[in-house]
Design brief:
Distance between the termini: 48 Å
Radius of gyration: 21 Å
Strand content: 15-25%
Helix content: 25-40%
Order of helices and strands: HHEHHEHEHEHEHEEEHHHEHEEEH
Number of domains: 2
Largest sheet: 7 strands, mixed
Mean pLDDT: 94
């Protein structure tokens, strides 16, 4: 069997450890999973109600264009319908944009310690990835990224995760404006703002890439229903872009890429403002709770604009992770991002966060700090 070296050497994305697997492995019933940036409230009640009402229609194919959902997105997010496309999660959108706009041997640019789907999808398409180092404070250096793009015409796509996963840091309005002033008009470049955590941002100087969609045809914005809307299990992402980009995307995507239940649930969830506010409240209060607990443990962390916290265990993090796991407590090790001392902690319910903090306090005594 003849297979490309790019495929042979590909390191697949490793998701957070599933609850059922942890229960089987350790013979425990109680598992608290705070590893995959999921919504601790569960789905919107309105989404669940809408799903139940459509179960008898599962013998029908879904609307291939997602008309009803796109109409709702257009209204709620204030975006023209011809600038909207749906994806089977953001991952499909990332994958297809690279396949559409890059030839083998060309490049995408992003930042170090960013979502691993970017380089994985690129490598699968025989496309190279170049990454700008983060600043010392773990923020994205858009000046360095702009210089990289200006000096390399082989870069065809730029992925800017804002806020970034796994750091939770962000780039502000001024930084984005300066970046777009430098490279936004390059005709052979697409600039993708990945805004999966957009709804959790509290920073006053943050701005969505959506503000520049009309000014720069090269700008693309990605959102998801997996985080604040609590629909991770249904896999539904959204792309907002120039109609020409949307048309090309529709040529390449599979005809029924988003299933009926995903469309129905998202259509209901996007208008459930009470649920949206509750999701934000539990995350913002949870972040402050976790910050306070980590300070009491003398552990450094990054203040986050997302629904998770990256913190420094000051030890080999995998040891802390393993001891937590044996208690049915799942956080996310991030050594694959070059952070062997850190763990990423998804915000849970108040009582879940307290359980993690209590367990951490006990475990840190058992695991010696790194020199």
């Amino acid at each position: 069997m003849r297979v490309s070296e790019d495929i042979k050497n590909l390191i697949a994305y490793k998701p957070g450890k599933p609850i059922a697997e942890t229960q089987r492995e350790f013979g425990i019933s109680r598992v608290i999973k705070l590893a995959s940036n999921e919504n601790p409230l569960g789905p919107s009640p309105k989404a669940i109600e809408a799903l139940r009402a459509h179960l008898n229609d599962l013998h029908r194919y879904p609307d291939p264009g997602g008309f009803e959902l796109s109409q709702k997105i257009s209204k709620v997010w204030n975006i023209n319908k011809n600038k909207i496309a749906l994806g089977n999660g953001s991952n499909e959108i990332i994958d297809l944009l690279i396949r559409i706009f890059c030839e083998p041997g060309e490049k995408i640019a992003t930042t170090e310690k960013a979502f691993l789907a970017y380089p994985i999808c690129a490598q699968a398409a025989r496309v190279k990835t170049v990454a700008v180092p983060l600043r010392a404070d773990f923020t994205i250096d858009l000046i360095a990224m702009a210089n990289m793009v200006l000096n390399d015409t082989n870069i065809r796509l730029v992925f800017i995760p804002n806020p970034n996963n796994p750091t939770g840091t962000y780039v502000n309005r001024t930084e984005v404006e300066q970046f777009l002033n430098k490279v936004g008009n390059r005709p052979d470049l697409l600039i993708v703002f990945d805004e999966a955590y957009n709804e959790f941002v509290r920073a006053q100087d943050y701005a969505s890439g959506q503000e520049w969609l009309n000014q720069y045809p090269s700008v693309v914005v990605m959102r998801t229903f997996s985080k604040v809307y609590g629909l991770a299990g249904l896999r539904l992402g959204v792309m907002m872009a120039d109609p020409e980009v949307i048309d090309l995307y529709h040529k390449v995507r599979n005809p029924f890429n988003t299933n009926e239940l995903a469309q129905v649930a998202a259509t209901a969830a996007i208008e459930d403002t009470e649920y949206l506010r509750a999701s934000q409240k539990v995350v913002w209060e949870g972040l402050d709770q976790i910050y306070k607990g980590l300070r009491e443990l003398d552990l450094n962390f990054l203040e986050s604009q997302a629904n998770f916290v990256l913190f420094d265990t000051q030890r080999e993090a995998i040891q802390v992770y393993d001891l937590l796991l044996r208690q049915g407590l799942i956080l996310r090790p991030v050594a694959n991002y070059g952070l062997p001392r850190h763990l990423r902690w998804t915000v849970g319910l108040k009582e879940e966060n307290l359980i993690i903090l209590k367990a951490l306090k006990e475990i840190l005594i058992k695991v010696h700090p790194m020199k």
